[in-house]
């Protein structure tokens, strides 16, 4: 009986030693923001691409600090597409389109933006002209 108890204790210790290894190994999920923004400012115009990192602000975006502030103010919800059953005004906001890909606070992002109706324009404006590096008139 003591030998069986010893074997059980060894197995238990070995099992517990394996628990939580990921947390102790420094493999915590990243909370980094690293995005690629591709903008088409008008029909027939070649796309412009910018990189943006936050914490600290960087990349080749012309105004990274301001773009990161706009992104944090808008929050992760801005990357969700407009619901298909959402009623939107039929007010055309312009031909501009953009894609944003990468990670926002460690979460994958793959979003498309356009200004074809009121809902889409509202999504665009939550990030603002600084984020997209496109002053609108």
Q: Tell me about the largest β-sheet.
A: 4 strands, antiparallel
Structural class: alpha+beta
Indicate the proportion of strand residues: 15-25%
Give the strand order of the largest sheet, numbering strands 1, 2, ... along the chain: 2-1-3-4
The end-to-end distance, rounded to whole angstroms, is 85 Å
Given the structure, what is the number of helices? 4
N-to-C order of helices and strands: HHEEHEEH
Q: Fraction of residues in helices?
A: 25-40%
Q: Shape, please?
A: globular
Tell me what the structure shows:
The radius of gyration is 23 Å and the shape is globular. A four-stranded antiparallel beta sheet has the order 2-1-3-4, covered by helices on one side. With about 140 residues, the protein is an alpha+beta fold.
